Task: inverse folding
């Protein structure tokens, strides 16, 4: 479902430059009943968010064009009602620390524990803006 800002739907935007990782996550989400859209760069994510409003964003921090924190900053500056889970490799500790200052709703360390991601997605929207950290 590609929801518009006027008609938000139960969707998740996956921002991940590794096509295989994005595909695995999208497939698993579909099996759990979640709809998703995928983009591979920060610029594509911002473009998507300018016209559509997903309920969730799963955001890789290490993207080919800009840091994922740029997307998180975009969401926070505009006060978009979107939950954001940042995803990073343990070796990207400095980038993860920068992301935490932007108050993501969840932080997942690669390799992803997919049941934890699915549990986060299943949380009610009322939990919006209550940070959680998963390993």
Result:
């Amino acid at each position: 479902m590609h929801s518009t800002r006027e008609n938000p739907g139960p969707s998740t935007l996956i921002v991940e430059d590794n096509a295989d990782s994005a595909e695995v996550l999208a497939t698993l989400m579909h099996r759990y009943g979640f709809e998703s859209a995928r983009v591979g760069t920060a610029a594509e994510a911002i473009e998507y968010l300018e016209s559509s409003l997903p309920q969730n964003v799963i955001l890789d921090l290490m993207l080919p064009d800009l840091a994922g924190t740029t997307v998180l900053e975009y969401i926070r500056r505009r006060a978009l009602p979107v939950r954001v889970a940042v995803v990073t490799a343990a070796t990207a500790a400095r980038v993860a620390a920068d992301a935490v200052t932007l108050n993501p709703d969840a932080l997942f360390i690669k390799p992803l524990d997919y049941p934890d991601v699915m549990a986060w997605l299943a949380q009610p929207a009322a939990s919006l803006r209550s940070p959680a950290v998963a390993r």
Residues 11-134 form a domain with the Rossmann fold fold (CATH 3.40.50.2300). Residues 13 and 44 are 11 Å apart (CA to CA). DSSP finds five helices and six strands in the chain.
